[in-house]
Amino acid sequence: MTGSGEPQNREAGAFVPVERIAGVMVVRQSGLTLLEVLVSLHLLAVAFLALLPLIRMGASALASGPDSVVPGPARLRTLAARYLEAELEYLRSWSYARLRSVDCGVSGPPPLAELRRIPGSYLPGEPLLPQEFAVAEIEIEDEPVLGPAPDGCGPRRIAVRLYRTAEDAANGRTFARAVLLRARR
């Protein structure tokens, strides 16, 4: 007996708590049974499977974040939309005289080339192509829906096409595109 009034059993240096219940010595057991361990593992597995979609969403969000080496599809679409909007805004800033065809009799500075490839032909102040894209094409042509203008100065369609790789550009696989219509005032 110890000072607590509870008998102790010391076999081979092991400390096993025992107590007397209704005159019978009963050994108290500590720990879990095999069934309790299996049930708890099952509950953990169910909880993990329930949280798996959230874990996957978080991992993909981290993988496509601003510091990611490989941008995700949503990030690429966002970059493409930002670039196209910036390029269209830049082209809107030019007067019709710079966007006209060579057949148009309007006086002014020489018209822009009807097909330009970026990054090979940047103009002053033009937005930079995001590094995730290899090529952008800017094509200026007569608006085909309205037909040819009698003086050659009809509305102009400016198409901006964005390509992920040079191979995509060579094969015409456009990632994103935007169109701007400009007319003489």
Q: What does this entry look like structurally?
A:
- There is one protein chain.
- It contains four helices and seven strands, in the order βββαααβββαβ.
- The protein is α+β, with helices and mostly antiparallel strands and 185 residues long.
- Strands 4-5-6-7 form a four-stranded antiparallel beta sheet.
- Strand 1 and strand 2 (14-21) form a beta hairpin.
- The longest helix has 30 residues, at 34-63.
- It is rod-shaped and about 120 Å long.
In short, what is this structure?
This protein is α+β, with helices and mostly antiparallel strands. 32% of the residues lie in helices and 23% in strands. The protein has helices at residues 34-63, 73-92, 96-99, 166-171; strands spanning 8-11, 14-21, 24-27, 115-118, 135-142, 156-163, 176-182.
Task: Furnish the topology, listing elements before pairings.
Elements: E1 8-11, E2 14-21, E3 24-27, H1 34-63, H2 73-92, H3 96-99, E4 115-118, E5 135-142, E6 156-163, H4 166-171, E7 176-182
Antiparallel strand pairs: 1-2, 2-3, 4-5, 5-6, 6-7
